[in-house]
Amino acid sequence: MIAARLRGDRGATLPIYIWLTGILLFAAFAFFAFAQAASARNGAQSAADAAALAAAQSARDELVEGLGGAVGGDADWLDWLDPEALEGAGAAAAADALAAENDAAVTAFGGATVNGYLGYEVAIQTNYTVGDSLIPGTENIQATADAKAVIKPRCEFAVPDDPQDAVELDCDGELVNIDPEDFDLDDLPDASVLFSVQLAE
After folding, report:
1. pLDDT in tens, 24-58
2. Is the overall model pTM greater than 0.85, yes or no?
3. C-beta separation of 78 from 163 below 8 A
4. Average confidence score pLDDT of the chain
């Protein structure tokens, strides 16, 4: 009698085990789907960040080249150290290249100003999709993201009465001396000394 009751109890618990196993499997697949989506979003954001930084760095290099060309021949050469606009002829191409390296494509690109600092805003879309999952349609969904990067002048200086006078720049503690009457482009330090490039919130 007791043995029969135990066999009946085991038979009654089998559907519960099957039900719980099904729930656990569904939860595991659902978690995997969310993990896939999160991974795609993170990849998209990394691509957007890299593209925006590349655009700003390209524009920064052009600023330094312009500064080097202006010293000695342009009365307003110091204006290059605190620009009011960015030409950034190669900025868009730099953003495209970095996005492509991260398996994404630029969908929107333009200038941006954040807290008075000039830069660029880039929107991208991944070339890959979220992937197959329990959630219908994810196999066709591509992740998107956007980012802004700005160029921040790092140098302070006293404006001379004569633009041909020597100028000492204090670039976050690093001193840079420029003498327009005795100047060589190689006298300029690395662009990162004169300007910082960083992502903007």
Report:
1. 555 555 555 555 555 668 888 999 999 999 999 99
2. no
3. yes
4. 81
Cα 8 to Cα 4: distance, rounded to the nearest angstrom: 6
Could you count the other beta carbons within 10 Å of the beta carbon of residue 63? Answer: 22
Q: What does the alpha-carbon distance between residue 157 and residue 170 come to, in Å, rounded to a whole number?
A: 6
The torsion angle over the Cα atoms of residues 89, 95, 101 and 107, rounded to 10 degrees, is: -130
User: Residue 144 in contact with residue 124, Cβ under 8 Å?
Assistant: yes
For 90-96, the CB contacts below 8 A with 24+ separation are 90/58, 90/59, 90/62, 91/55, 91/56, 91/58, 91/59, 91/120, 92/55, 93/58, 94/51, 94/54, 94/55, 94/57, 94/58, 95/51, 95/52, 95/54, 95/55, 95/120, 95/122, 96/51
What are the Cα distances from residue 91, in Å, to 17, 58, 68, 96?
A: 60, 5, 19, 9
- The one-letter amino acid code at 6 reads L
Residue in 120, 135, 125 with CA at minimum distance from that of residue 59: 120
Distance between CA 136 and CA 130 in Å, rounded?
Answer: 11
For 81-129, write each residue's pLDDT tens digit: 888 888 888 999 999 999 999 999 999 999 999 999 999 999 999 988 7
